[in-house]
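Board notes (copied after class):
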Amino acid sequence: EVQLVESGGSLVQPGGSLRLSCAASGFIFGRYDMSWVRQAPGKGPEWVSAINSGGGSTYYADSVKGRFTISRDNAKNTLYLQMNSLKPEDTAVYYCALGGTVVAALEGGYWGQGTQVTVSS
């Protein structure tokens, strides 16, 4: 079965950095595009970033472009999200998702359990 386990979330001050990880299993990780999705309190899910199967192409939502970097290590079956210059608006539960398009990531149903990121002073 497909399993995605996020980790790395914590409380951080504005301007700080955090790196999230997603350990994947149950499928051939290196053959699939992946995404990061987040959901703030009381709001719907928001697509954040995507990376193609080989890791050579990346995409970002305007709200995080220039601050976040998505990457992957297929040998380790792991997806990453490096988050820099964090803002309070980044506060949300972050999920990794199977699929590289907004529709695939949000509607595919293959999400992990999520990891909480709280940006506050």
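Comment from the instructor: Strands lie at 3-7, 11-12, 18-25, 34-39, 45-51, 58-60, 68-73, 78-83, 92-98, 115-119. DSSP finds one helix and ten strands in the chain.
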